Amino acid sequence: MVPHAVTRALRKNKTLRYGVPMLLLVVGGSFGLREFSQIRYDAVKIKIDSELEKKLKMNKVSLESEYEKIKDSAFDDWKNIRGPRPWEDPDLLQGRNPEVLKTKTA
Fold first, then answer.
1. What SS3 string covers 45-95?
2. pLDDT tens-digit profile of 42-78?
């Protein structure tokens, strides 16, 4: 057994009390980060199916094609409606009567 005086001295030693756990955290963290960062490089090595690759190439969506879709849209009647805050009632905020909504669902 360890004498009582030695145990008390080890508890009072700040290096052992704070330094060793910190050192273990730093060294252990570096090993943990190495494992997590290795996942990224392993995922790049995985090849996808040729069928899936063909599907992805066929469904090309570009910024220009999306622009062409919405270019001729009319936004004259568009109205900006603010979303409700967590403490607000969404039906009252957007001008809907909650009593009417309750009768529709019932």
1. HCCCCHHHHHHHHHCCCCHHHHHHHHCCCCCCCCCCCCCCCCCCCHHHHCC
2. 887 887 788 888 887 887 788 888 888 888 877 777 7
Structure tokens at 80: 């900006």
**Burial environment of residue 32 by CB neighbours within 10 A (0 to 12, 13 to 18, 19 or more):** exposed
Measured CA angle at 78 (ends 103, 81), to 5 deg: 55
The tokens for 58 are 């066929």
Measure the CA–CA gap between 102 and 77, rounded to whole angstroms.
28
Of 48, 51, 71, 47, the closest CA to residue 59 belongs to: 51
List, in sequence order, the alpha helices (H) in 13-49: 14, 20-45
Quote the CA–CA distance of 97 and 8 in Å, as a whole number. Answer: 72
Give CA–CA dist 82/78, Å, rounded.
13
